[in-house]
Design brief:
Layout (H helix, E strand, L loop, with lengths): L1 H12 L7 E6 L3 H13 L6 E6 L6 H9 L4 E3 L10 E5 L17 E4 L10 E4 L6 H12 L5 H14 L9 H11 L4 H8 L8 H10 L1 E3 L2 E8 L4 H10 L7 E8 L2 E8 L6 H9 L4 E4 L3 E7 H7 L5 H12 L17 E2 L1
Parallel strand pairs: 1-2, 1-4, 2-3, 4-5, 5-6, 8-9
Antiparallel strand pairs: 7-8, 7-13, 9-10, 10-12, 11-12
Amino acid sequence: MKRLAQEKLNRLLACFDSEDRVLIVINADPDAIASAMAIKRLLWRKVASVLIAHVNRIERPDNLTMIQKLGLKLLPFGNLDVAAFSKTVLVDSQPDHHEAFGRIERFCAVIDHHPKTHFDADYVDIRPEYGATASMMTEYLQASGLAVSAKLAAGLLYAIKTDTRNFERQAIEADLKAFQFLFKRANLPLVRKIESSEIRPEFLRYFRYALQTYRMRHGKVFIHLADVTHADVCVLVADFFMKVQTVSWTIVSGLCQDRLTVIFRNDGIRKNAGSLAQKAFGAFGSAGGHKSMARAEIPLRQLEHLIERPTDTRIIRWVMERVDGKGSGRTEEGKRTMEEQPS
């Protein structure tokens, strides 16, 4: 294992030289942020400069707290001149995971733990069996022999905790070993501070709305939050409803940034959220994920062709039909709906 990690590190570093200006691109969440920190550490004194850019709006409190407490500087990807960088790295994502990644014609390196999609890069390390990209990056750091600061260890540790949901989701022995390595080095009070910063006060209204409007069918909770300030609100609500005893699935949707986002969560018992997301919505936008968690994003311009006059009621009806395999595509006024159990 150590030899393989060293070989991967050597191949990654061989992609760069001392004059390179490197741009690390992420769809910012704890795993992506921490993994980008690790890559920046690996490239320290090996390239001319390293910047980290995010394609998404960062509004989740834990992400904001993580960035603040770790002293990170992340730049909006849309504000950057891509041509100013000689090498680009994509971490915890793949080129077809977000439309903004299309600004990069070809990434120099792609490192991720999601299922492999079709793309080309100089260096590719995709390990879908891993619970977190942060675990992979910890192995790179171990192979490098570089010192891992308490802040970097805290970021990577929190990322592993988040993506494996404290090892309740998919994880392998390598994730556990990475966690053990980081636990000895991390600033644990800093980790606890980040963990306790999940919900902003203004998000509480979405929880109230969800409690008033949720629909349940055969252990599945369906919620449409209408317009949300950030798609991550759907994630928070989906995770919250998974704590209900009789719930085995949560499907939460919301409208944000000219797209419908649908978040999937399940209990991980003989279920595959990624496959369901792809089957239900893959034909209309981007969709995929892991066995217990997934996401689909559908442009509003596409949604208007699928749902006649897409009101909130018709959107959740369409989502329910697609998830239960009863929708053929376009939903028209007057179409008979499925039987459902309202809240």
